[in-house]
Amino acid sequence: MPTVEYKGKTFNVDEDGFIDSFDNWCPEWVEYVKESEGIQELTEEHWKVIHMLQDYYKKHGIAPMVRILTKVTGFKLKKIYELFPSGPGKGACKMAGLPKPTGCV
Amino acid sequence: MADVPKPEELAKIDHTPPETPWMETPTVFKDGMWCYGAKPQNLEAVGMPNPREWSPKDEDWKLPDDWKEIVLDGMKDRLGRFRSFKLFMDICVRCGACADKCHYFIGSGDPKNMPVLRAELLRSVYRKNFTLGGKLFKKVAGARDLTMDVFKEWWYYFFQCSECRRCSVFCPYGIDTAEITMMGRELINLLGCNIDWIQAPVANCYRTGNHLGIQPHAYVSMIEFFCDEIEDVTGVRVNPTFNRKGAEILFITPSGDVFADPGTYTAMGYLMLFHYLESMGLDITWSTYASEGGNFGFFTSHEMAKRLNAKMYAEAKRLGVKWILGGECGHMWRVVHQYMDTFNGPPDFLEEPVSPITGTKFEHAKSTKMVHICEFTADLIRHNKLKLDPSRNDNLVVTYHDSCNPSRGMGFFEEPRYIIKNVCNNFYEMPSNTIREETFCCGSGAGLNAGENLELRMRGGFPRANAVKHVHEKHGVNMLACICAIDRAALPTLMDYWVPDVEVTGVHELVGNALILDGEKKRTTDLRGEPLPGMEDIEDEDL
Questions:
Q1: Residue A104, in any domain of the structure
Q2: Is residue A57 part of a domain?
Q3: Is there a domain that residue A45 lies in?
Q4: pLDDT band of B539, cuts 50, 70, 90
């Protein structure tokens, strides 16, 4: 499994750069993904999305469906893409340390 | 992940074969055309062999020393167990009728995607090891040794076949090329070389009952979210039940419907239909255990398909239902229709399905005791049991994509069309050689709907997209209806790429839009929350 070194931390990641386990998530990971995703500055709106994703994941063991994400945060999908150019899955979930959903998705 | 070329670049497809004979043309792994390898924890979860960290890009795939023996023994075993496999290895006359019927060949121009040649990749090894002619005359007889390059070539091309079986429709011998791919994949899995996009859902499904790994409490909360959404649109609260013992019918649908857009709107359609029928005598329950209609085990091996399928009858028995209603899924219906009865049946604890609303006996389901929701709904419409307002779908101009498995796997053509024509006013068919039994695959079936192989998906989906483009330009089609969760996940990406103004829907989303619920408020939007043109002004005009 490939690893990423960032600010003294080592992360195991999969082929798409998702962290191997939510347990290994830390604020440095957010910094790292911010840089690799080319996001200029993390705003409160970014954190609102990240916290929503993490809270949902802790409770349900899976990322929320996009419709729940948009309803709870009040951000339309377009806005989520503005905040996270790679989208809710490959951008926001990655930053929040959630695994990729698989199957008929 | 490789960048996908722009559509105008990808559309320049060269069908000129290489000058070298196929056995001498090396297979080069092109980024964007293959999927990541199975992760060790996902192999371990179901006790599959050779769990390890590996990548198909690596030179060394970390196979056991006796890998060749394992594969050839596996082949011998399957030639004995599956008469179809033996027959299909022997009888092809290489007439080429299938050659240009494969969507992956049409979209890629790679001759090894001609079904005849894809099968020949396996046949050549079969001849060398299991036929006298091949042993004696070797290459002259189309035989070759199993080498690591050959094994990797199998891997590359058996994960570039979506088991859609369009080629089989044109084969004068009726060779089922999907079954050849299935055998190829079984052999590949003997060495732990599945793709992770299949293996992860298999592991999840074994653990939680569904591909996405949705646990029971999360499953319930997702459905409750849909109930809230339905209430927002209609003013009516629907109250589904879960794992309810003594219910008459168990409902099983792909987990994609409860998680991924636009399948989620189809799930809302199911919920609304069930609510509508409740007062008419429908007694139905959802299950958080049999929470998956699909079966990615089917893309892995017969044994895995059987294992993952078992929960359907197990749950039906546990709850004591009379029969099972199944949702809009593709390959689920090939498994149900052609395998389940002998995999895990006969389900003698169930009864021959009878619609509690119309009294119709679904005689064709006498053996499996499982009815497709489109059959169920079409029967309701036929008996005038549903109050429908098709004008609520007037913002849509609809065409219908026959999902490969329901169409070619169970001859399922009329019911979805009958429903659509009753719930929509604008419906146009795509050209006849691209629908019904000749339907073109979405390009992402059989577990190939990953992100990293997007070029393959866009190439394979090109013939389907081309047919959609035709009706989009000719009739203004803006909605592509289908009855498969992989379709609903894959086709939006395909449409964005090739025909950007067309969206994707399940059939029961359209039903949900048209269905008039008792006590509902005036609908001003469709289930997606999109305003319904004209609907907001009607009352004002009446005044």
A1: no
A2: yes
A3: yes
A4: low
- Beta strand segments in B460-502, E: 479-482
For chain B, what is the radius of gyration of the CA atoms? 24
Domain count, chain A: 1
- Domain residues for the domain of A59 are 3-96
* B92 and B167 Cβ atoms separated by less than 8 Å: no
How far, in Å, CA of A21 to CA of B317, rounded?
A: 37
Residue in chain B lying closest to A105 (CA): B489
CA distance A29 to A19: 9
A residues 5..44 contacting B (CB < 8 A):
14-16
B322-373 residue pLDDT tens: 999 999 999 999 999 999 999 999 999 999 999 999 999 999 999 999 999 9
Q: Which helix (H) or strand (E) holds A10?
A: strand A9-12
Give the pLDDT of residue B537: 55
Domain harbouring A20, CATH code:
1.10.10.370
CB pairs A-B closer than 8 Å: 78
Within 8 A of A104 by CB-CB distance, chain B residues are 211, 254-256, 260, 263, 294, 449, 485-486, 488-489
Q: Does A101 touch chain B (CB under 8 A)?
A: yes
Q: Is B36 on the interface with A (CB under 8 A)?
A: yes
Query: Looking at chain A, which residue has its C-alpha nearest residue B40?
Result: A1
Q: What are B93-110's pLDDT values in tens digits?
A: 999 999 999 999 999 999
Residue limits of CATH 1.10.1060 in chain B: 7-30+49-193
In three-state secondary structure terms, A3 is strand
* Chain segment B460-498, per-residue pLDDT in tens: 999 999 999 999 999 999 999 999 999 999 999 999 999
Class of CATH domain B7-30+49-193: mainly alpha
Among the listed residues A40, A67, A104, A105, the single catalytic one is A104
